[in-house]
Write a structure and sequence with these properties.
With 295 residues, the chain is of the alpha+beta class. Helix content is 15%, strand content 36%. The chain has 4 helices and 18 strands.
Length: 295
């Protein structure tokens, strides 16, 4: 009689390939959160794996939305690789597989990942221990010649305006703007960080075009030049991108976000996760000056 029929649980510990390019053991919560951050920007891209962990730098097809994401090796239960590898990954397929792991109970269901060569493929092994179930998903990687090259991240931008709203506060504010507007300003009033919507569609806030909606995150903003009286910069962004970004940060359980912006420059949203060590930033390009679509 089998152990299962005898009432003893079956051994569902995954056996990982010895010749894999890289193997990872983790759980549903961290890997699903990582996948959420990645798929918010791109459906496929180049994933770099080295002794330091997982690295992803990618931009969406319209060149508006960029992600730079690092998941350190020590943030996973186990992480092994024999060197540096660049792999073409379908992140939608990746997310679909790992999303079968539940987030319940600590960090969630155990997940094992294998990155295999010849042919290039990824295998995800997800175990629901309390149900005595295991799912094994395997799919091919993408030829690197058919994957868009990693973008160059702007090295120097005049992003003097900084703010540190709460992650959920940022999401709630952006969602509120999204209910009434197609775009929103990022700006500052002294030490207050503002999200503002305006029917005029102007980039700069002025006496003749006061915003119709304003959400204030009090005492969270400053000018990095330490000029208390410095005039705040304002830029306007599509709420489609702001909403996706803010939702990814909240769903991906980022602990902190620092917003940096300037006058007509891309805004940078740097984030960190304390428990798993994920870090990186999103960048969103501003709407073009002079657009006048009515909200």
């Amino acid at each position: 009689m089998s152990k299962a029929l005898d009432g003893e649980p079956a051994d569902l510990s995954p056996t990982l390939a010895d010749d894999a390019l890289a193997t990872i053991k983790t759980h549903g919560d961290p890997i699903r959160s990582w996948a959420k951050l990645a798929t918010t920007v791109v459906t496929e891209g180049k994933l770099r794996i080295d002794q330091d962990g997982l690295h992803l730098t990618a931009v969406d097809p319209p060149n508006v939305f960029l992600i730079d994401l690092h998941a350190p090796a020590e943030g996973f239960e186990e992480f092994e690789t024999d060197g540096e590898h660049v792999i073409g990954v379908n992140f939608d397929r990746f997310a679909s597989a790992v999303n079968w792991a539940r987030k319940r109970g600590g960090d969630g269901d155990p997940v094992a990942l294998e990155f295999l060569d010849d042919p290039g493929r990824i295998r995800a092994i997800i175990t629901r221990e309390n149900q005595q179930m295991q799912r094994v998903s395997e799919w091919f990687t993408i030829n690197l010649d058919k994957v868009r090259a990693e973008p160059n991240i702007p090295a120097a931008l005049d992003l003097y305006n900084h703010a540190t709203p709460g992650v959920r506060a940022l999401r709630d504010g952006v969602q509120a703007m999204d209910e009434q507007h197609e775009k929103a300003y990022l700006t500052r009033d002294g030490t207050d960080f503002l999200l503002a919507g305006s029917p005029e569609g102007h980039v700069s806030l002025g006496e003749d075009d006061e915003p119709a909606d304003t959400i204030t995150c009090a005492a969270t903003a400053w000018d990095s030049r330490d000029e208390d009286a410095a005039e705040a910069d304002s830029s306007v962004f599509s709420l489609d991108y702001l909403t996706d970004m803010a939702d990814a940060l909240a769903t991906g359980k980022a602990d902190r976000v620092t917003v940096k912006w300037g006058e007509d420059y891309p805004a940078r949203f740097a984030f960190q996760h304390e428990d798993w060590g994920f870090s990186g930033h999103f960048m969103i390009a501003p709407r073009i000056t002079g657009e006048t679509e009515e909200d």
